[in-house]
Design brief:
The complex is a heterotrimer.
Chain A (H helix, E strand, L loop, with lengths): L27 E2 L20 E5 L5 E5 H5 L4 E8 L4 E12 H10 L7 E6 L4 E5 L9 E6 L2 E2 L9 E3 L12 E7 L29
Parallel strand pairs in A: 1-5, 2-11
Antiparallel strand pairs in A: 2-3, 4-5, 5-8, 6-7, 6-11, 8-9, 8-10
Chain B lengths: L8 E2 L16 E13 L2 E7 L11 E7 L5 E7 L9 E6 L7 H7 L5 E8 L13 E6 L3 H13 L8 E7 L8 H9 L4 E7 L16 H7 L8 E6 L1 H13 L7 E5 L7
Parallel strand pairs in B: 8-9, 8-11, 9-10, 11-12
Antiparallel strand pairs in B: 2-3, 2-7, 3-6, 4-5, 4-7
Chain C lengths: L2 H4 L1 E2 L4 H4 L11 E4 L5 E3 L4 E4 L4 E4 L6 E6 L6 E3 L3 E5 L2
Antiparallel strand pairs in C: 1-4, 2-3, 2-8, 4-5, 5-6, 6-7
The chains are: A mainly beta, B alpha/beta, C mainly beta.
Chain lengths: 208, 268, 87
């Protein structure tokens, strides 16, 4: 077995330091906010934007942009971890907690199921257990760093689930669909881990 | 005849040139034999690549850097040298916030080795045998693969039968790669025209263009669509898309307008 | 900067695809299974997100091909492509 070639003097962009303890295994901190995209940036006008929670029985709770804005919003500060190895600490968001959405939906007769599929403009999907979007773990975010969420970062609204790898925080989210059985989303069906816990380094399918 | 689904790949290829026949293009260890400063922010690496199978103008290589702890970064760089040249040349623009280009510009030196694989790409290639006329439109470091095409053309006795034009957009004159060589090539060859446009600042006495490439400039520089030029556009993605769209609007056949997008800024 | 400024051409996928295809694939002709448009692979739009390459049809934006490299395996999804003929 030959030894791998090492490029003399190359260290890459990473800076190990004081924040190392806050980084999950294999992650590096970045000061930027890289834009990673699987397609062109959707541009849904706010006048036609809506957000849905859809029950497994087909029942729907729907909010227009104005109705969504009237829901209780929270400020969230979170560390985010991308499976491509960059992490960003103390990012600041504002949005509606999924708990609040679940409660509002239940009041309209839309019942939750054990699994959720988030679907976005442009066709992106990602799946999560219901337990991972409840209990203060997930939001639909509309602001980043105090300003309205930019389209390249998922605006007008994206899912925010910081305790899992960031591909689960679906940009341009439009719907959370409840499912009785788990269904793999865009990356989960294509080599990436179904759950995606950064602290157990669950990057790829087959990782324990 | 159309078939659907994943089984629909037909891999027959009777006549592919040697440059693309390598199975699973292998990573090779090249040695840097010389380094040439092109501009304050760009330099050309001249490489000896063991077992290099040859290439066509327009192709690129993937370069891979490995740190001592195993961390790797990979980027693509267009080959600047002609297939006829003895050494492989890569011209790299230094991006201040890049990860690989600062290493290739500041740290790498003669005698060092560099892991690369290639040549890659059968779409964005030109050989004299394809004929012309040849229209090349470059934005910044996008000139690199187009320079390989011009160097290849210059090496061929039949070149005068293929008229060529390069429209090269750069921010300032100091940012232009290959200044002397382009002047020399154009001076010795009536069938080659080189036009520059500088978008940020022009030197005193400048008689070239002094603005972003636009429809009027392309209409002036390009051959009429009826001449059916082979067109190659390379540079930052927004520039490439705007130029390609404008050429199609002007009537050029989209199938003859080939693009190589370098991403947002044209480098990494 | 937006998703469009980041996109590349099919050439950008050439290196990874060379790991499984013997002839160069960037000159191959791909027909979009969604809209039927046929182009050379190099003329398709590549969105390279770091997680993988998502290759889309310039005519209708549908996903033509996906490439990912989890753990050194190469995953290839060709379900968006009707026919690939390598000249």
């Amino acid at each position: 077995m030959t030894e791998p070639f090492i490029s003399r003097g190359f260290r890459g962009r990473r800076q190990p330091g004081a924040t190392a303890a806050r980084l999950p295994p294999g992650q590096y901190e970045t000061p930027d906010f890289p834009v990673l995209s699987a397609g062109p940036t959707p541009r849904t006008p706010l006048a036609s934007w809506d957000f849905l929670l859809r029950g497994a029985d087909g029942s729907v709770a729907r909010w227009t942009w104005d109705e969504f804005a009237a829901l209780p919003h929270e400020n969230v500060t979170a560390d985010i971890h991308c499976v491509t190895k960059w992490s960003k600490l103390d990012t600041m968001w504002e949005g509606v907690s999924v708990d609040a959405l679940l409660a509002a939906a239940a009041a309209r007769g839309v019942k939750a199921s054990p699994y959720v599929l988030a679907t976005s403009d442009g066709g992106y999907t990602t799946n999560l257990p219901l337990a991972d979007v409840m209990g203060g773990k997930a939001w639909v975010a509309v602001k980043f760093g105090g300003a309205p969420l930019a389209p390249e970062h998922g605006g007008p609204a994206r899912l925010l689930v910081p305790h899992l790898y960031f591909w689960k925080s679906a940009k341009w989210v439009r719907q959370l669909r409840f499912m009785e059985h788990d269904e793999a989303g865009f990356w989960e069906s294509f080599g990436y881990h179904n759950y995606g816990d950064p602290w157990r380094e669950q990057r790829y399918s087959g990782d324990p | 005849m159309a078939t659907r689904g994943a089984s629909s790949v037909i891999a027959a290829t009777p006549e592919s040139p040697p440059a693309s026949r390598a199975a699973g293009i292998a990573w090779r260890l090249a040695t840097v034999v010389d380094v040439v400063t092109e501009t304050p922010r760009a330099r050309t690496l001249l490489l000896d690549v063991p077992g290099w199978p040859g290439h066509r103008a327009g192709q690129h290589v993937d370069v891979r850097l490995t740190a001592a702890d195993g961390y790797q970064a990979e980027r693509s760089y267009s080959i600047a040298s002609a297939p006829e040249d003895p050494r492989i040349a890569l011209t790299v623009l230094r991006l201040d916030d890049g990860e690989v280009s600062p290493y290739l510009n500041d740290v790498l030196r003669s005698g060092d080795r560099l892991e690369l694989r290639g040549p890659i790409g059968g779409y964005f290639v030109w050989t004299v045998a394809l004929g012309g006329p040849l229209l090349l439109v470059a934005g910044g470091s996008g000139v690199v693969p187009l320079m390989a095409m011009l160097r290849h053309r210059a090496a061929m006795p039949a070149r005068h039968a293929v008229p060529a034009r390069l429209l090269y957009s750069a921010r300032r004159w100091e940012d232009v790669f290959y200044r002397e060589e382009l002047a020399r090539l154009a001076e010795g060859d009536e069938t080659l025209e080189v036009a520059f446009t500088l978008t940020d600042a022009v030197p005193p006495g400048w008689t070239g263009f002094g603005r972003r490439i636009d429809r009027m400039m392309l209409a002036e520089v390009a051959w009429p669509p009826a001449e059916q030029p082979h067109v190659f556009v390379c540079g930052p993605t927004p520039m490439v898309e705007a130029v390609a769209a404008t050429l199609v609007e002007l009537g050029h056949d989209p199938a003859r307008v080939k693009t190589e997008r370098f991403g947002p800024t044209g480098g990494s | 900067m937006n998703g469009e400024a980041l996109r590349l051409d099919g050439n950008a996928a050439g290196g990874m695809l060379s790991e499984i295809f013997v002839p160069d694939v960037t000159a191959a002709r791909a027909t979009c299974a969604n809209c039927g448009a046929m182009r050379e692979m190099g003329a398709l739009l590549v969105y390279a997100s770091g997680m993988g390459m998502v290759i889309r049809c310039p005519s209708c934006d549908a996903v033509v091909l996906r490439i990912a490299r989890p753990r050194k395996q190469l995953w290839l999804d060709l379900t968006g492509v009707k026919l690939v003929v390598i000249p």
